[in-house]
Amino acid sequence: MLAFKYVAFHYLKYFFIILGALVMFLVGFDYMGNTDGLSKSANLLLIYLVYKSFFAIDMLLPIALVFAMISTKIFLIRSNALVSFFSLGYSRVDILRPFVVVSTSIIVIFISLHSWSSFARADEFSNNIKKNSQYLSPTRDLFFTYKGQYVYFSKMLPLQEKAEGIRVFSIKNNSLKEVVVASSAVYRDEYWLIKEADVITKPDELSFTSNGIKISKSNDLKILEGFRPKILDQVYEGKVNFTIKNAIDAIILLNGQNINTSSIKGALYKIFIYPFFVPFLIIIIFFFVPISVRFLNVSLFSFGAILSTLLVWGILFMLIELSNTKTIPSELGVIAPIFLLFILAALQWRKYRTAT
Q1: What percent of the chain is helix, strand and coil (3-state, nearest 5)?
Q2: Exposed end of the chain (fewer CB within 10 Å): N or C?
Q3: Higher pLDDT among residues 110 and 253, named by residue
Q4: Could you state, in order of their start, the residue ranges of all structural domains in the chain?
């Protein structure tokens, strides 16, 4: 317990220092590069910096956990604390355990933050502020199919749960049967509600003897059951920064519509699986470090460990981006490399679990 508390305290200390430094560097660098294009409003500027900070935390927290382990391990070696713990009967696994427990706990908290829209979509919101001076910009010219109908929104406002310029095309036997035209619709009680619409109905067969196209008025139409504005905005604009709830709802809703949900599954894999490369990489690196400074070139080890961490993180990030663009399957881009790291970490843990 003494070793656990001591190592965990220093690990957390280095983690917060490194994460803070990395976030300030990324946000500061971004601010200096985009100062001219940002709004002069102090409120918008502050909100922009907050969202950029959230995005920086989302991107850099996993790698900060690994860097903090490297820093803590070097501190333990240089202060001879590691040798002292071993002389008291602690094993390598005993010293490794606080790193794994603390990093895994932080990863669980990190995953739970993705249920919060402001954190999960921080990069999107900050880019909207930079481009449009508002954090949630309207989506324009949205055209999609749902339950056999083709739907067009000329403008959608997710924050107000409202759409403008509505067209709903109904198809029967590969032929246009009906068109609903409305100026606006609002999302209420799991439906998109159209208060007043023109319904254009085409007869099954157009001929000189048929009645021709019929135009009628209709009130209180309900369409797109369960298709929430945020799901529409993200799925059909190809966005991949889903909250946990939105991603799960989108998969449930779209599975029955024969719509490819691979990008949404990839977003869930990124939330739930990708961060766990951290404890696996910590285990792999930990056992390569000698117990004493006499057997270690600290500068060389630090350089090699940081370079290896950046290389692994970069490869994982590249594979995730390839998965987002559907270049490779999400299972290959996210699950496979994390599973490989898990196998390597398990072999290392098994090898040294009784060693000192």
Answers
A1: 60, 20, 25
A2: N
A3: 110
A4: 2-121+266-352, 138-227
